[in-house]
Design goal:
TIM Barrel; eight-stranded parallel β-sheet; two-stranded antiparallel ribbon; binds zinc ion
């Protein structure tokens, strides 16, 4: 009997039900410390978010993993309104965990001051009981029925900060007790190999590790070294010409496939800024590409350079079924 499952906010489903998956994205971001970097990180328009998700569905998408951790933009009530609106049409997975150290006070944040094992209990509760509707922002915790289905951790540019090392240990312990997958925000694709080694040494199942943002470090030999660890790489940024052209990303993906790693590649857009989304942009009269670009523009480019439909199906459909499935808790 196949008892594998992925945990969406409206309940557990079998991995096969996910269809085409965007493994790292955003629909709502309700402020938080990211806004000190740019006002574009504020995205609180439920109608625009619904429209963006419907464009993704129209292009063939079915499941979206929204990677906003508590305290860094996660908005449980707005996201649940969206998830309920798309019930039966699209699945949404939400995250618990942490972002990079920059977003936490080094002296008095609860990530710093609270005992590691107590935080593990808080993470387990979000995955097994229900998310805190206030996203652990304050003294009151009120859980909703919806559970988190992925753990996020973050690392910085070229370093893994002591606070990040703590959150990595917390993520590993939480994974071991719940089987929940882990996605890592790497800064510009750096420290990915190192964080993967840390997690594996802490006992995390390699096939539950997803490394994000490696597209921003377009180094195919580095990708190969990481793939040898049997973890997943989420390439989450076509349509980001300020970092690299789509052709570089597409050719690197093709190279990895040709070298035998097509079972370890995931695709996403990570459209975590206002103007990265078609529908948010429209509210201010701007025209931009959005989340559906992955399916409407990037997949055709992959085909143009010789990636087969079967290989595309692995990246969009089959590989997420392994990466996002809960493993046996230990
Ligand atoms: Zn993101």
């Amino acid at each position: 009997m196949n008892n594998k499952f992925v945990r969406t906010v409206l309940g557990d489903i079998s991995p096969e039900e996910m269809g085409v998956v965007d493994c790292h994205d955003h629909l709502i971001k309700n402020g938080g410390p990211e806004m000190s970097e740019h006002i574009d990180f504020l995205m609180i328009d439920i109608e625009a978010a619904k429209k963006e998700l419907s464009l993704f569905v129209k292009a063939g998408g079915k499941t979206m993993v929204t990677m906003d951790p508590p305290n860094v933009g996660r908005d449980v009530s707005r996201m649940l309104e969206i998830a309920n609106h798309f019930k039966g049409k699209a699945h949404i997975i939400m995250a618990t965990g942490f972002h990079k150290a920059k977003f936490y006070d080094k002296y008095c944040s609860w990530l710093k001051t609270v005992d590691e094992d107590k935080i593990v209990e808080m993470m387990i509760a979000e995955i097994q009981e229900g998310m805190d509707i206030h996203s652990y922002n304050g003294p009151v915790v009120e859980r909703v029925k919806a559970k988190a289905g992925i753990i996020k951790v973050g690392t910085s540019y070229g370093v893994i900060d002591p606070l990040e090392q703590k959150s990595i240990r917390i993520a590993a312990k939480t994974h071991i007790k719940t089987g929940c997958p882990i996605l890592i925000h790497t800064q510009l694709g750096t420290m990915a190999y190192e964080v993967a080694i840390m997690l594996i040494n802490l006992g995390v199942d390699a096939s539950s590790i997803i490394l994000s943002h490696l597209n921003k470090n377009p180094d195919k030999y580095y990708y190969k070294k990481i793939c040898k660890l049997n973890v997943f790489i989420a390439f989450d940024g076509p349509d980001r010409v300020k970092y690299l052209p789509d052709s570089t990303l597409a050719e690197n993906i093709k190279w990895l496939i040709d070298n035998g790693y097509q079972k370890q590649i995931l695709l996403a857009m990570d459209a975590g800024r206002f103007y990265y989304q078609t529908s948010y942009s429209e509210t201010k009269g701007f025209k931009t590409y959005g989340i559906s670009y992955m399916l409407t523009h990037f997949v055709p480019l992959l085909k143009e350079i010789g990636v087969s439909q079967e290989q595309i199906n692995d990246m969009l459909i089959n590989n997420p079924q392994v990466a996002l499935a809960f493993k046996k808790a230990k």
